[in-house]
Specification:
Length: 226
């Protein structure tokens, strides 16, 4: 490669390096916070679903059917449409629709039903014999959930949390279309609007590294807990 081209690429990288760093931090904050919130909300939904499931701890088919429809309905929205559709709600919650803080709201709303479905599946995979044994000792529904289902399903939950985080990483880049901040916003601002393909490449490389790290971290904790 010609030395002048190398020098030009290095010059461009040094020019955008501070913004790349800031965009990386913004992306990490968006993904970590929205992953945590979606897991909390998803756990609450999954708890009600596992309680009311026809094969659950306290079957209530009608209630479960309503929850099932709500979860499926929220999951059916493409993220870019959901991102725009809940702009009034985002403004109500954080006071703005621009920046990484605003992006956390639609990211959480998009991931919570997905997390609920994954957590429900993880709970349903727990051996029914263990649940029945706890029931025979007089354990209540919430005791079974927190002391039996949750510990038994934790390895699967750890792996699924990594999947949710990686999914939200891709969504966070998409949020850059409407000024959501982070690497997606940077890639659009420089790579698309200013035709600086090298900035787009830098952003993609950082995202790939983050995906690999998150998956490796999930695998590590899965093996550790299992």
């Amino acid at each position: 490669m010609d030395q002048s081209v190398i020098n030009k690429l290095l010059e461009n990288f040094l020019y955008v390096a501070p913004e790349l760093w800031e965009g990386t931090l913004d992306t990490l904050v968006m993904v970590l916070v929205s992953t945590g919130l979606s897991l909390v909300l998803g756990f609450i939904l999954a708890t009600f679903m596992i309680l009311t499931n026809p094969q659950g701890l306290n079957p209530r088919p009608r209630v479960y059917n309503v929850l099932d429809v709500v979860v499926n309905l929220l999951r059916s929205f493409p993220f870019i449409i959901l991102l725009i559709a809940i702009i009034p709600f985002t403004r109500l919650v954080v006071g703005t629709t621009i920046g990484s803080a605003a992006a956390i709201v639609p990211l959480t709303v998009a991931a919570a039903p997905f997390a609920a479905r994954i957590l429900e599946g993880s709970f349903l995979e727990v051996d029914r014999g263990v649940v029945e044994a706890a029931r025979s000792f007089g354990a209540g529904d919430l005791q079974i959930i927190f002391r039996v289902l949750l510990p038994e399903a934790m390895p699967a939950i750890i792996l699924n949390a990594a999947v949710i985080g990686i999914t939200l990483l891709g969504y966070s880049a998409m949020a850059g279309i409407v000024g959501g901040g982070g690497l997606g916003d940077l890639a659009i601002k420089y790579g698309y609007n200013r035709f600086q393909a090298d900035v787009m490449i830098y952003s993609v490389i950082i995202l790939v590294i983050m995906v690999q790290f998150m998956q490796s971290l999930g695998n590590y904790f899965y093996k550790k807990i299992r």
